[in-house]
Amino acid sequence: MDGRNRWHRGMAALVTAALAAAGCQGKSKDVLVAAPAGTTAASSTTQSGVFTARFEATDMAGTVRQAYAPGDRVRFALSLTNHSAQVQTLSFSTFQDREFRVLGAGGLVWSYGRAHPQPAAPRQISFLAGQTQVLDTEWDLKDLQGQAVAPGTYAVEAEVPATGASAASLPRVAPISVVVQSAASAGALSATFLAKDASGRPSTTFLVGDRIALEVTLSNGGVSPVTLNFATSQTHEFRVLTPGGGELWRSSYGKVYTQGFTQKTIPAGQTVVFTEAWDGRDNQGVQVQGGTYRIEAALTVTQLLGPVALPSLTPLPITLSGQVTATGDFASRLEVLDASGRAVTSMAPGLPVSLDLVLTNTTSSIQTLFFVSSKMYDFVVHDASFREVWRYSTGRPSGPAFVVRAVGPGASLRLRAAWDGTDSAGLALTPGIYRLSGEVFPSPLGSASVAASAPTAIDIQGAPGSNPSGAFRLSLGMKDGAGQATSSMRSGDTVRLSLGVTNTSGLPQTLSFPSGQQFDFVVRDVSGEVWRWSRGRAFTMAFTTMGFLPGQARDLEVAWDGRDSAGMLVRPGLYTLTEDYFTRNPLVGSVGSVAFTVR
Hints:
Layout: H1 3-21, E1 43-47, E2 51-58, E3 67-68, E4 74-82, E5 88-92, E6 99-104, E7 107-111, H2 112-115, E8 123-127, E9 132-139, E10 152-159, E11 176-180, E12 189-196, E13 205-207, E14 212-220, E15 226-230, E16 236-241, E17 247-250, E18 262-266, E19 271-278, E20 291-299, E21 303-305, E22 316-321, E23 330-337, E24 346-347, E25 353-361, E26 367-373, E27 377-382, E28 388-391, E29 400-407, E30 412-419, E31 432-440, E32 456-460, E33 466-467, E34 472-479, E35 485-486, E36 488-489, E37 495-503, E38 509-513, E39 521-525, E40 528-532, E41 544-548, E42 553-560, E43 573-579, E44 593-598
Parallel strand pairs: 3-11, 13-22, 24-32, 36-44
Antiparallel strand pairs: 1-2, 2-4, 4-9, 5-8, 6-7, 6-10, 10-11, 12-14, 14-19, 15-18, 15-21, 16-17, 16-20, 20-22, 23-25, 25-30, 26-29, 27-28, 27-31, 31-32, 33-34, 34-35, 34-37, 37-42, 38-41, 39-40, 39-43, 43-44
């Protein structure tokens, strides 16, 4: 037994004796394993004269978290940043460049080195000035024999097994701890999600124009307090969605939140309530029509302290009545078709597409639509900020008219317009995601009702994703699990978001950054920002640099698991990827955006 194991086993004996003396043994199903003293956090940051090391435990969505339920996987990540002005090279006697050890009351429980044996060949890793590299692995809450570990608190150590003089430049990484829950304690934190009317009564049916109170109640049914940490003053998010998944309203839309750490603690046996009011209007302030909608709720927790898991919140269906309902005589849908009549989700500038508003008679009898104006329908295009950029009726005269359209059972009526990707002034729109909406204006004198159609998204393509000018050549893209470039992903898959950077100037180049953050990736849909890599992450508040030799290329990559900033899987649809930090440097320039689909 080496000195390290002797120390841990000695500490484990002391902790076990202390628990027994305090009368704690056997009273809680979670106090079965005790970690060595001094390891109480899920993250730690230490620094030497050369490197800054941040060691953290996160879930697979990238959220720093201390408690994990049976069946979870934990990601251990050690980020090393060279904050010196010179290139630093670490030497290793074998191919193993990292070591993570999980320790319990009985000593070593799991080791990265034993679980992932490496070749005996020596290797080196070089860090440019200001460069950050991440050494990570995943732990499935099992020991080295493949058996599930007992509930309790475990210490986790991280080590970079460098040899020779390079080892002296590394800081001594402070250990962290993780809590493995029992099946019983995993359900100690419960949540209820309700919509309430003006009298405070829970309901799922409201009148159009009603003010609806949305309420999430989080209850701590355990015996210990639970602390919720938030990266900003935003603690929750509510969204109202159409049956097709399109966003109508978001509680955070247009709001500004304080960019500072926020914390809420729920004592044992108590609750905390998160509330928001919805006035029945969409993000543009337009009254939502009658119909059936879905409301989602999420807590924007970045770190959860305590032996519990954050419960999921089931979407809440609600019905608005009092106007044209979504189950009217005519169902409507919006289609975007190319010149060959195929449905498309993207278009090239200068190549018009057909916008078709399809009204389908859903009844078993002939239905008649009456129009008293030549303006029978309209199409509207909004940008990602919900700013109207084009309207079909703009500049088209309209006047009194009497038009009758009779549609048989199951038959459809198509209302069509052409659009070439320009705004109302005839100027080409910049590449990106735009929202298309269709409207129909039947006379209220008729008896047939028409359901509102859900908006759809269109990607206007240009030449995004590359920047061949300036001192650097940039390429932005997404890679699948095999490392191959892709423009689509399945819901629930994990992909790599990548910014390729090549110094084409023929001279050494050094880029400066005001903190430890050197890049960022943002995923957006037609409603706005969905996910940002840097959200909830902490960066050293120290000046950093990144150097490039002539012709040197580097890929800046992060993993994305297809979840939004609230930890919920994004819906199938069209999205854009942008880089929003590295490219702010004046020596770099912009790289545009790339579109991809989630299916």
